[in-house]
Amino acid sequence: MAVLGIESSAHTMGIGIVDDGKVLCNVKRMYKITNKGLIPARVADFHSEGVGELLAEALEAAKIGIDDIEAVGYTAGPGLGACLRVGKVAALTLSKRLGVPIMPVNHAVAHIEIAKWHLKMKNPLALYVSGGNSQIIGMIDKPNRHYHIYGETFDVGVGNMIDSFARYAKLNPAWGSTVAKVAEGGRYIEMPYTVKGMEFAFSGLLTNAQKLIDAGRSAKDVAYSLQETAFSMLCEASERAMMLMGSKEVLICGGVAQSGRLKEMASIMCKSHGAKFGVAPDEYNADNGAMIALVAEKMFRSGQKVKDDDITVKQKYRIDSVKVNWR
Amino acid sequence: MKVVAEGAEAIVYDTELDGIKAFMKRRIQKKYRIEAMDTRIRTKRSRNEAKIIAIVSKAGINAPKLIMFDGYDIYMSPVNGRKLAEISGSLALFGKVGAMLGKLHNAGVVHGDYTPANIIVDNGDPYVIDFGLSEMTNAAEEKAFDVLLMKRSAAKASYLRFLEGYKSESSDAKVVLERLVIVEKRGRYQSRTLT
User: Fold this and answer.
1) Furthest CA-CA distance within chain B
2) Residues B67 and B125 in one domain
3) B181 and B148, same structural domain?
4) CATH code at B146?
């Protein structure tokens, strides 16, 4: 018996199958991004064309039959509306056809839970960093159990900020790993560093980086300084949250958690406080279906009832509005 | 030197300076930041904090007084007592805490972390400490955040007395409280209020 999860919040459609907290498969199809960004409707079309084939691939990889599925989860948000709806419709169809429950899963919860699961952590402080999101999150029990946001970006997510810079500086392909590569061996230029307690902001940093490029400074030096500044800000805000919570475990998750330099900085920070630090393999930090299946299973096994009205998508589904029934 | 308090970015020590009892706040090096950036940030913040402590003392607000400032180290007069966060403060005390914030704002200082953890109570009188996140500004938005932080961390009755105290002292309470309504309407702060 198993639980299947469908992820389609952005350019990746992923299907994962888990059984009793064990990942049986984690397959995905990625829309090819150009340097101009993406058009949600086109991505949604790509997802709906591929979902049938991907489902067959998932069942084959997990070595189970479709009738072994006990429950189906999908990403309800946050994400791009058009893309989220494809996953929802696919999950709903499957749930009706098989006569099994459907679970709407919060994307941020899923990123944290799969990292927690992989790292075997109990109650970590999580730095969730992706294209559209940058938040410092921890679970608290009052007034009822939920993930509390200790701090977050005032404006854009760190990933989108770095991608925007990459496009502006005409780096190819225009995304984070290219910026990281270009940054190697760069020299530090002073840039705006905006941290207020556990909150932070990136738009001033981006504008400054763009101005430096306009002024003819080397893309290498600007990329280096931008990356160092942004990641230092994230580490400082996390450090403050960690001390406030008295956390002994810290993890980073989400797409930007694949960055080697961010991992290195966060690990140094945790070490100086004697806290355990961890990050899941890239497969789980990139968007994936396994994390959705994992949370759907927790919801299903904890007996969560889902009303028809809950089977929806919310582009701005905040993690602190999710009721958590599990540990 | 005995450690009085340890925060994320600084350690406060109990020390003496030419025979005078003092607290020394030292901003510690962060190894995760490259050195040039770390030095710049620590210097800038320490200088800013020392300047604000001096302004606050001049305005006659209950707070540590600046003795000396040296690089990453700020020496100030000791404030002893218990944190408001650790005692069940009376309503009258919250009134005084509100009035104190009003005075700070009148002096053009926004505290940035005005919570019960940063209010020390000595002999029934509140003292405000830790100007590490403070700024010189008269922006209603920033002032509203100071009020919001107390609203989030204090019980309702305490908060209401705090507000009375604030209104009695702050010269632009009306504008700040109007701003507070706008700030709270932004979704993310609604969902983030703990109580």
Assistant:
1) 53
2) no
3) yes
4) 1.10.510.10
For residue B164, is it within any domain? Answer: yes
Q: Is residue B195 part of a domain?
A: no
Quickly list DSSP for A156-211.
Answer: S-HHHHHHHHHHHTT-SS-SHHHHHHHHTT---------EETTEE--HHHHHHHHH
Say which of B30, B31, B113 has its CB closest to residue A197: B113
Q: Pick the residue from chain B with its C-alpha nearest to A269.
A: B32
CB A242 to CB B133 under 8 A? no
My answer on whether B102 and B183 are in the same domain is: yes
Facing B191 at nearest CB: one of A232, A235, A321: A321
Q: Confirm whether B113 is a catalytic residue.
A: yes
Q: What is the CATH number of the domain that holds B13?
A: 3.30.200.20
**Interface touch B7/A318, C-beta < 8 Å:** no
Token reading at A140? 């608290």
- Asked which of B76, B102, B131 is the last residue of a domain, the reply is B76
Predicted TM-score (pTM) of this structure: 0.91
Chain A window 4-43: which residues touch B at a Cβ cutoff of 8 Å? none
Residues B40 and B106 in one domain: no
Nearest to A189 by CA among A165, A233, A231, A220: A220
> For chain B, what is the domain count?
2
**Residue B146 structural domain:** 82-189
Rg of chain A in Å (alpha carbons) = 20
- Residue A230 phi, psi (nearest 5): -60, -45
Is the Cβ of A142 closer than 8 Å to some Cβ of chain B?
A: yes
Show pLDDT as tens, one digit a residue, over chain A (327 residues): 899 999 999 999 999 999 999 999 999 999 998 877 789 999 999 999 999 999 999 999 999 999 999 999 999 999 999 999 999 999 999 999 999 999 999 999 999 999 999 999 999 999 999 998 999 999 988 778 999 999 999 899 999 999 999 999 999 998 999 999 999 999 999 999 999 888 899 999 999 999 999 999 999 999 999 999 999 999 999 999 999 888 999 999 999 999 999 999 999 999 999 999 999 999 999 999 999 999 999 999 999 999 999 999 999 999 999 989 887
d(Cα A17, Cα A115) in Å, to the nearest integer? 16
One domain for residues B114 and B175:
yes
Which residue of A243, A269, A316 is in closest CB contact with B32?
A: A269
